[in-house]
């Protein structure tokens, strides 16, 4: 296991498998990488990276994008990672194509799903995602709920004045299926930067509501020190990532971009280009490059420093809707 200079182990690898998406979410950070990149790792490349990472103690892999289900070989990607024998293998998706791929992905080793669901209101859903697809996604959620995944989480990015009133409704929806609800703080990254001042919610009122209507179960220590509540039998995980030193102090992950570069933090530029080592199948070179990247890891937010929201004053108009 690798430990960085701040005592944080590297346990997890987020793998961005493509740079395209069929949605246009108003807040998308696109995993901190560019869109429509000119090169892309193959399924075999990704499996090779996973095997080397596992040698270094990484045993938890998250597939993301873009929208990962737009890759026609996504089942092979899952199969290649599964071959290295990870403790956990999960995938984040907008849910639009789950009816096409979910069962086969499960059969090839995918254990958990994170499904983005930012509203249960069709009009709001379309405004947030740019796609009128709520009915289809809800049908797909109902379908995958019975397939036998180890866990399914609903990812909800909290947007002040837009979907904050839906949290009790979302908890009831998660309870219906036995899902976990993950409430995610908006980040000033990518498409989220221009809308940050308008929709940012620091989650304090939501946390007060959770304390009043539920109970704190504890803190998830294996990933970013995330508080976990229980409300009406539903686990609610809080991803409070902006200007939160406690969150950064518990970081155990790095990101592999779809064009083969390694990021130590979502907020930071890639530190190492792994592409040459991956394509040459240079196991020793790749391992050294990963070890070097880990040595550069450091918390983005630290005690005594604060984020400056005053500079974020950009406004945008999205379609004809105004909230």
Automatic annotation (TrEMBL):
EC numbers on record: 4.1.99.22
Residues noted as binding [4Fe-4S] cluster 2 in the record, renumbered to the chain: 248, 251, 265
Stored HAMAP family: MoaA_A
Catalytic activity: GTP + AH2 + S-adenosyl-L-methionine = (8S)-3',8-cyclo-7,8-dihydroguanosine 5'-triphosphate + 5'-deoxyadenosine + L-methionine + A + H(+)
Pathway linked to the protein: Cofactor biosynthesis; molybdopterin biosynthesis
Annotated Radical SAM core domain residues: 5-226
UniProt entry keywords in alphabetical sequence: 4Fe-4S, GTP-binding, Iron, Iron-sulfur, Lyase, Metal-binding, Molybdenum cofactor biosynthesis, Nucleotide-binding, S-adenosyl-L-methionine
CDD domains in the cross-refs: Radical_SAM
Binding site for GTP: 14, 62, 92, 153
MF annotations from Gene Ontology: 4 iron, 4 sulfur cluster binding; cyclic pyranopterin monophosphate synthase activity; GTP 3',8'-cyclase activity; GTP binding; metal ion binding; S-adenosyl-L-methionine binding
Regions crossing the membrane: none
Function of the molecule: Catalyzes the cyclization of GTP to (8S)-3',8-cyclo-7,8-dihydroguanosine 5'-triphosphate.
InterPro entries reported for this sequence: Aldolase_TIM (IPR013785), Elp3/MiaA/NifB-like_rSAM (IPR006638), MoaA-like (IPR040064), MoaA_arc (IPR013485), MoaA_twitch (IPR010505), MoCo_biosynth_MoaA/MoaC (IPR050105), rSAM (IPR007197), rSAM_sf (IPR058240)
Domain of life: Archaea
Family: Belongs to the radical SAM superfamily. MoaA family.
Enzyme kind, highest EC tier: lyase
Name recorded for this polypeptide: Probable GTP 3',8-cyclase
Cofactor(s) required, per the database record: [4Fe-4S] cluster
UniProt keyword 4Fe-4S present: yes
NCBIfam families, alphabetized: moaA_archaeal, PRK00164.2-1
Chain positions recorded as [4Fe-4S] cluster 1 binding sites: 21, 25, 28
Lineage, top ranks: Archaea, Thermoproteota, Thermoprotei, Thermoproteales, Thermoproteaceae
UniProt cofactor note: Binds 2 [4Fe-4S] clusters. Binds 1 [4Fe-4S] cluster coordinated with 3 cysteines and an exchangeable S-adenosyl-L-methionine and 1 [4Fe-4S] cluster coordinated with 3 cysteines and the GTP-derived substrate.
GO annotation (BP), single: Mo-molybdopterin cofactor biosynthetic process
List of residues binding S-adenosyl-L-methionine: 66, 116
């Amino acid at each position: 296991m690798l430990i960085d200079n701040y005592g944080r182990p590297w346990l997890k690898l987020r793998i961005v498998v493509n740079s395209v998406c069929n949605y246009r979410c108003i807040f998308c950070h696109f995993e901190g990488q560019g869109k429509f990149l000119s090169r892309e790792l193959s399924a075999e490349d990704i499996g090779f990276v996973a095997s080397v990472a596992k040698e270094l103690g990484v045993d938890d892999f998250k597939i993301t994008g873009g929208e990962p289900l737009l890759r026609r070989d996504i089942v092979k990607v899952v199969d290649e990672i599964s071959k290295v024998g990870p403790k956990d293998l999960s995938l984040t998706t907008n849910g639009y194509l789950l009816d096409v791929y979910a069962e086969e992905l499960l059969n090839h080793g995918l254990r958990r799903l994170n499904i983005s669901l930012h509203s249960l209101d069709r009009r709001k859903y379309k405004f947030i995602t740019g796609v009128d697809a709520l009915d289809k996604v809800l049908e797909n959620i109902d379908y995958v709920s019975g397939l036998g995944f180890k866990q399914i989480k609903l990812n909800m990015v909290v947007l002040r004045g837009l979907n904050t009133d839906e949290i009790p409704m979302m908890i009831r929806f998660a309870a219906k299926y036995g899902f976990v609800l993950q409430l995610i703080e908006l980040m000033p990254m990518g498409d989220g930067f221009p809308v940050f001042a308008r929709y940012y919610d620091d989650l304090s009122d939501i946390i007060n509501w959770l304390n009043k209507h539920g109970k704190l179960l504890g803190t998830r220590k294996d990933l970013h020190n995330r508080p976990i509540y229980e409300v009406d039998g539903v686990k609610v995980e809080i991803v409070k990532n902006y200007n939160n030193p406690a969150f950064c102090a518990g970081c155990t992950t790095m990101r592999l971009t779809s064009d083969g570069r390694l990021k130590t933090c979502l907020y930071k530029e890639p530190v190492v280009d792994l592409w040459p080592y991956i394509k040459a199948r240079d196991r020793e070179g790749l391992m050294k490059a990963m070890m070097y990247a880990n040595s550069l890891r450091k918390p983005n937010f630290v005690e005594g420093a604060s984020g400056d929201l005053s500079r974020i004053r950009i406004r945008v108009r999205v379609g004809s809707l105004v909230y």
